[in-house]
């Protein structure tokens, strides 16, 4: 406290030096003030000068604090960020420049390749043009060789004189008429198309005597037939309808003969003419027997042995459904195989054999030796014994309850009305048909009527009498649909009928139904069958079936179908590669005129049976080949361009007899959508498949929301 007081008061202490302390304190404050002034004034000026000097020394592009474009000065706090951005952009620019150089070098290389490809394309075009020229020259040479080796078609040798010659001799007997001596082939060349001229019956006096229903049905059929022509000068065959005639106005045989000989194109002997005598009833008159028909062919349901010329005349079926279609809904089903009665027969014999020999003019003169034996009494006794034995249910009646139908002599007349007879036949497994006792009556309208009714309702015909000539017997194998037994074996008939198995019964019934539907049921079928028989005999190819526009059913395709695992596992069977190119049309099938000559008795029917008289023309001009059945309820049939085959044979030959070939699958279905879709999916990946045609056999269209599988080939849905 003492020292502090002394200093504060300016007194003396510590030697008495107060003024030194005051001076020293003033100097320090002055120096400190001056130093602070210098630092605060000159240091910013020096820093500013230094920084300005550095900006001036650098490039204009690297200045940081110098003036910028647009007179904008950079702030000091962004210097470091801008520097980093500048370095990053510089690196990216360097990388882009390197990439640009690389791309330029690649573009240059690609340009060189493009130029090389252009040169190769030009060379390929030149080679292709040369190949086209070579192919064109080869095709031209091939056509020339084919033209040189192709046989020239010309008219067949004319066997008859060019002009009508009344002195030209007829065969010694009408029974000697055959195609080689009574038919003019020169009017029917292979390329003619089988033109047929039909006379108008109303232009002749006998036309007013024809049955109106038969005449109307015949005229309606003629108008729609593909072979009928109105140009008589080019016709191959001339047809005239002469029956069935009505009894009250029937002309005399001499008058009808004169009218036939006065036909415009009769040419003295009636060659290439066909006289048709259709029967609608069981008592059709055989008035043509006493008429000279010359070289004209005859088609009717009643023939005597002295009148019938095998291979020349035609036995036709009766025209039961003249102006109406048969009611197929009333036809009984084919099963069960066995029915209530083992066999049945109803009929009444009106006249004996001896009386029949006096009915026909000049018939007795042709009988050699004794009259043929009449087995009818033995037949009656045997059949009644079978009925009385009651081993099987049979029904035989030899006396009609009502008035029997009119019939020819020695012929068993029909009993009752047609509906009553059909009801009995529907209950019968077999239907007995007893031929007339006159063995020289090879066929009668009554027997043909019984045969027609039996086939219609599925009763298997049993014909007693091997001498009978059934309708269209030269082209139909009747042993596959009926039993033809000699009358002396009447005692063995019961044993024979009981020994037939159910499988054979069903096969015969199916074949009988096919024959009835195809050749007997309607007037169109009868007339077309008659023309087909003549055309087949003279070996002229059938006309193609008229194309009918199919009703296409719209459908939607769904997801792609997968390959069926069942088809993938084929063992050692190689189905071939899947086609990578789009479907292509099959080559034209060249078989034409040889088809009739080589395949006359080829059976196109699914069941074993006769030659199908109508032309076979599937969707493509091809022949059917075998195929595997896919799925229950939906079958298909492939169609290829040649002989084809199945499995490994098909693959080895590339589809048949041509280098490239595909086939079409035709499937028939009926409201089984799930089965159909599964079957279609299994076709996915099938080699050589061109397309699939689905025939929708139902009036009810498929569901609108149904998705059809995409199998890689077109699926065409058609409605029947």
Automatic annotation (TrEMBL):
<protein>
    <recommendedName>
        <fullName>Exostosin GT47 domain-containing protein</fullName>
    </recommendedName>
</protein>
<feature type="transmembrane region" description="Helical">
    <location>
        <begin position="29"/>
        <end position="51"/>
    </location>
</feature>
<dbReference type="InterPro" id="IPR029044">
    <property type="entry name" value="Nucleotide-diphossugar_trans"/>
</dbReference>
<dbReference type="GO" id="GO:0015012">
    <property type="term" value="P:heparan sulfate proteoglycan biosynthetic process"/>
</dbReference>
<keyword id="KW-1133">Transmembrane helix</keyword>
<comment type="similarity">
    <text>Belongs to the glycosyltransferase 47 family.</text>
</comment>
<feature type="domain" description="Exostosin GT47">
    <location>
        <begin position="192"/>
        <end position="500"/>
    </location>
</feature>
<dbReference type="Pfam" id="PF03016">
    <property type="entry name" value="Exostosin_GT47"/>
</dbReference>
<dbReference type="GO" id="GO:0005789">
    <property type="term" value="C:endoplasmic reticulum membrane"/>
</dbReference>
<keyword id="KW-0175">Coiled coil</keyword>
<feature type="coiled-coil region">
    <location>
        <begin position="79"/>
        <end position="148"/>
    </location>
</feature>
<keyword id="KW-1015">Disulfide bond</keyword>
<feature type="domain" description="Glycosyl transferase 64">
    <location>
        <begin position="663"/>
        <end position="719"/>
    </location>
</feature>
<keyword id="KW-0256">Endoplasmic reticulum</keyword>
<dbReference type="GO" id="GO:0016757">
    <property type="term" value="F:glycosyltransferase activity"/>
</dbReference>
<keyword id="KW-0812">Transmembrane</keyword>
<keyword id="KW-0808">Transferase</keyword>
<dbReference type="Pfam" id="PF09258">
    <property type="entry name" value="Glyco_transf_64"/>
</dbReference>
<keyword id="KW-0472">Membrane</keyword>
<dbReference type="InterPro" id="IPR015338">
    <property type="entry name" value="GT64_dom"/>
</dbReference>
<dbReference type="InterPro" id="IPR004263">
    <property type="entry name" value="Exostosin"/>
</dbReference>
<dbReference type="InterPro" id="IPR040911">
    <property type="entry name" value="Exostosin_GT47"/>
</dbReference>
């Amino acid at each position: 406290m003492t020292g502090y007081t002394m200093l504060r008061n300016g007194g003396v202490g510590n030697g008495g030096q107060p003024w030194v302390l005051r001076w020293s304190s003033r100097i320090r404050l002055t120096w400190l003030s001056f130093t602070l002034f210098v630092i605060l004034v000159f240091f910013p000026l020096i820093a500013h000068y230094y920084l300005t000097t550095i900006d001036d020394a650098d490039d204009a592009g690297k200045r940081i604090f110098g003036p910028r474009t647009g007179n904008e000065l950079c702030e000091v706090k962004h210097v470091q960020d801008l520097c980093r951005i500048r370095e990053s952009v510089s690196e990216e620019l360097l990388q882009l420049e390197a990439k640009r150089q690389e791309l330029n070098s690649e573009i240059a290389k690609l340009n060189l390749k493009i130029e090389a490809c252009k040169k190769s394309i030009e060379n390929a075009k030149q080679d292709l043009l040369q190949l086209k020229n070579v192919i064109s020259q080869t095709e031209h040479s091939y056509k020339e060789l084919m033209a040189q080796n192709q046989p020239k078609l010309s008219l067949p040798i004319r066997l008859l004189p060019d002009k009508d010659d009344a002195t030209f001799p007829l065969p010694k007997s009408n029974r000697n008429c055959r195609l080689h001596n009574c038919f003019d082939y020169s009017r029917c060349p292979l390329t003619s198309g089988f033109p047929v001229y039909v006379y108008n019956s109303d232009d002749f006096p006998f036309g007013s005597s024809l049955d109106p229903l038969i005449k109307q049905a015949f005229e309606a059929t003629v108008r729609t037939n593909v072979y009928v022509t109105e140009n008589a000068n080019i016709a191959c065959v001339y047809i005239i309808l002469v029956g069935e005639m009505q009894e009250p106005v029937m002309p005399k045989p001499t008058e009808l003969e004169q009218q036939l000989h006065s036909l415009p194109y009769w040419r003295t002997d009636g060659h290439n003419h066909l006289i048709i005598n259709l029967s609608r009833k069981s008592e059709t008159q055989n008035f043509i027997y006493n008429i000279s028909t010359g070289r004209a062919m005859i088609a009717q349901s009643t023939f005597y042995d002295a009148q019938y010329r095998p291979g020349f005349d035609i036995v036709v079926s009766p025209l039961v459904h003249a102006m109406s279609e048969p009611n197929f809904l009333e036809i009984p089903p084919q099963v069960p195989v066995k029915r209530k009665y083992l066999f049945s027969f109803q009929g009444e014999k009106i006249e004996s054999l001896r009386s029949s020999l006096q009915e026909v003019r000049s018939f007795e003169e042709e009988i050699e030796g004794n009259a043929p034996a009449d087995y009818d009494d033995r037949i009656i006794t045997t059949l009644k014994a079978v009925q009385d034995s009651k081993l099987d249910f049979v029904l035989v009646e030899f006396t009609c309850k009502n008035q029997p139908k009119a019939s020819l002599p020695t012929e068993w007349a029909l009993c009752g009305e047609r509906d009553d007879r059909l009801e009995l036949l529907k209950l019968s497994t077999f239907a007995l048909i007893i031929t007339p006792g006159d063995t020289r009556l090879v066929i009668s309208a009554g027997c043909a009527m019984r045969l027609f009714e039996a086939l219609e309702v599925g009763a298997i015909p049993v014909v007693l009498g091997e001498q009978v000539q059934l309708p269209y017997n030269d082209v139909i194998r009747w042993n596959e649909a009926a039993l033809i037994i000699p009358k002396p074996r009447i005692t063995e008939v019961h044993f024979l009928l009981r020994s037939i198995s159910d499988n054979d019964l069903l096969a015969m019934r199916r074949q009988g139904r096919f024959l009835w539907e195809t050749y007997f049921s309607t007037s169109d079928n009868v007339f077309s069958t008659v023309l087909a028989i003549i055309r087949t005999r003279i070996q002229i190819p059938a006309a193609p079936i008229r194309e009918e526009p199919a009703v296409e059913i719209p459908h939607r395709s769904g997801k792609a179908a997968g390959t069926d695992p069942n088809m993938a596992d084929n063992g050692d069977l190689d189905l071939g590669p899947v086609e990578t190119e789009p479907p292509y049309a099959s080559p034209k099938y060249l078989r034409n005129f040889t088809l009739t000559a080589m395949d006359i008795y080829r059976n196109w029917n699914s069941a074993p049976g006769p030659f199908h008289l109508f032309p076979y023309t599937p969707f493509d001009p091809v022949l059917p080949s075998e195929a595997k059945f896919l799925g229950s309820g939906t079958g298909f049939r492939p169609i290829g361009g040649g002989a084809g085959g199945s499995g490994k044979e098909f693959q080895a030959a590339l589809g048949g007899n041509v280098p490239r070939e595909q086939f079409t699958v035709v499937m028939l279905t009926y409201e089984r959508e799930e089965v159909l879709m599964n079957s279609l999916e299994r076709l996915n990946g099938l080699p050589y498949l061109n397309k699939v045609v689905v025939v929708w056999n139902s009036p009810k269209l498929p569901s609108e929301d149904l998705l059809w599988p995409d199998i890689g080939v077109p699926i065409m849905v058609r409605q029947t």
